[in-house]
Amino acid sequence: MFFSKAVSAVAVFTAVGLAGVAQAQTFPERPVKVIIGFAPGTPPDIAMRRMTDPMAVILGQPVLIESKPGAGGSIGTEFVAKALPDGYTLIAGTLGTHAFNPHLYKALPYDPLNDFVPITRILSGGFNTFLVNPNLPANNVQEFIALAEARAKEGKPLTFGSGGVGSVAHLAVELFKQATGVEMVHVPYKGSSQVVTDVIGGHVDLIVAGPSVTLPLIEAKKLKAIAVDAPQRSKYLPNVQTMSEAGVKNVDIVVWVGIFAPAKTPADIVSKLHATLIKVLSTDQMKSDFARDGNEIVTDESPGAFRTVLAADIEKWGKVIKAANISLQ
């Protein structure tokens, strides 16, 4: 009797294993949906819309985009966390949804590590530039720090604007403040466009922005760049120092978008999706398209490598957010 039960158990496990292999071999049998937790026209949306057609050619099924914006990307991210782990529902997650939000929201309805399988990053936002009004008497980071210290002693601290509490622009400056010890006042807006206008108008002293905003305004001499927060100088701004060159360490910020599947998605399906994304992103056309958007393609050699990056970012930004005492709930 024991032998009979053992044989039956082996048969069940074998059947389940074979079913999983068969599922992976036939995947996908219907359209794959990628959820965007932000409004149309944002970097995750633009990037995925460039990628859907070539992905569909490789997978043999349409790849659809669906926007579920709100709560800093948390609404769409939660939706995917609770989706069936079959590879048909993915999320284009960001540094914000998976590294910032766990520390900004006390009751976040998903776990960024345990509720997802990271597949690969697809892009980096290139670099962010610290920008000031051309009339501000600071032409580099050290001069800016000296000015900030002097203004703080006078009781008139410098101000910095961002598109909202907990945004990349906000946390980038908080990281800078913690690295340098300078005092500055945050002025949050409901979007980044008005911040740019107010820095140009001299109403706010500093903004951190990506290349799509940065380059045209610097060229027009409406804003002045004092540093980039990337590990190396940008080829677009070769005369602008990195933070590290200016003596400010550990203010390198890598803003990314990555693709995630729900936890427990079969490994073979994850591998197939990973291989598809890598192949799509390896073409010269895709590299050119991303560069035109001001982004750089960045990929991970394996889902495990992406998970390591994510875990490090969660730890890093948790410390920044805690030290700045920032909360959205």
Average of the residue pLDDT scores: 90
SSE string: HEHEHEHEEHEHEHEHEEHHEH
Distance between the termini: 58 Å
Poorly predicted segments: none
Number of helices: 11
Q: Please state the second-level CATH architecture of the largest domain.
A: 3-Layer(aba) Sandwich
What number of domains?
A: 2
- Helix fraction, binned, reads 40-55%
The CATH topology name of the largest domain reads D-Maltodextrin-Binding Protein, domain 2
List the helices and strands and how they pair.
Layout lengths: L1 H25 L5 E5 L6 H17 L3 E5 L6 H8 L7 E6 H10 L11 E9 L4 E4 L8 H13 L4 E5 L5 H13 L3 E5 L3 H9 L5 E4 L1 H9 L4 E5 L27 E7 L4 H15 L2 H9 L3 E2 L5 H22 L5
Parallel strand pairs: 1-2, 1-3, 6-7, 6-8
Antiparallel strand pairs: 3-10, 4-10, 4-11, 5-8, 5-9
Helix pairs in contact: 1-9, 2-9, 4-11, 6-11
Structural overview:
With 329 residues, the protein is an alpha/beta fold. The protein folds into two domains: 12-125 and 255-324, Bordetella uptake gene, domain 1 (D-Maltodextrin-Binding Protein, domain 2), CATH 3.40.190; 129-228, D-Maltodextrin-Binding Protein, domain 2, CATH 3.40.190.10. It is 46% helix and 17% strand. It is built from eleven helices and eleven strands. The strands form two sheets. Strands 2-1-3-10-4-11 form a six-stranded mixed β-sheet, with helices on both faces. The protein has a five-stranded mixed β-sheet with strand order 7-6-8-5-9, with helices on both faces. The longest helix has 25 residues, at 2-26. The protein starts with a helix and ends in a 5-residue tail after the last helix. The mean pLDDT is 90.
